[in-house]
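BACKBONE STRUCTURE TOKENS:
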Amino acid sequence: MRRFRNTFCVIYGGNPGLYEHIAEQVGMEERTLSRCAEEFNRQNRAWRTILAPHTRISTWHPDGHLMADAPGAAVKVTFELPTTPVSRFLVETFEDGLRGFAEDLAKTYVLPRDLSVTYRQCGELNAWYNPSEGSITMCYDLIEYLIGMLAEVELGGTQTSSAPPAQADTVAVTSEMMVTAGALNELADYGVPATSVLFPAPYRGPTPAAHMRADVLTTPAIVDLLTGNDNWLLVDTSGGTATLPGAFAVVDAGRDGSLTDRFQGLIEDWLTEETGGDKSVPIIFFGAGMQDRSSYNAALRAGMAGWKAYWYRGGIEAWRSNGLPMAGQID
């Protein structure tokens, strides 16, 4: 039961809304659930770091180190004849899905040799990997036991308070201030695909040239937007002391995790408060520069929630290179 609680905590941390009813039925305390978001983040960061050297780069795996067409081995799935009602139900209901999962696994990761996965009756609650054969055995017996345990359950992160985000001084910005000679190439393509997955901490690395849920702005475009409209929200995720005029410093806005975690709800609440619930208000996110992925995350969180999100990819680095004025944050 302890292993179940630890595993469930990680799953819950990624999507508390989906698994809230199970947490209630199991009787997990709030002090335990409050740490689950960080448990999910810790596991997510660790596994993505471990697997990145063996992962093909793609929309869902932008941190992969290998080319999309890198050669690799296959995963073969075999279902031996099930002998119990539950195991027969398992095969009849999930065979196609499990085979598809294995195919996706081989497409995502570059395996050094073929891997076989066999589902069969073992006469024991077990599952194992045989390194000499390159095979995985999944026992129907163990799966039945887990299904029964979950059936009994069905029948039977820390949120910390903080000061309001600081907003920078307002400084007049005009297009005439821009010095474009020798400015940063804000359209540079580093080969990182746009993704609907949050980049993991520490958020440092090449950024995509496009965004899945936000419009990408260059410096001339953001100057035009800021000077042509007074109704906008500018959010800085860089964590620096100097920022763009009128920006709010919200470092956590670009936090990793999942788009269904508790923090997503906190971001949505803050955006609702600052915009009065008007989702047509332009919200521009920016970070330290072209190698700061936190602003991509923040724009993704806002865009997924339905706000009119913009991503100023070049961030402070591009703003400075164009000779535009900076401002200090108001405490």
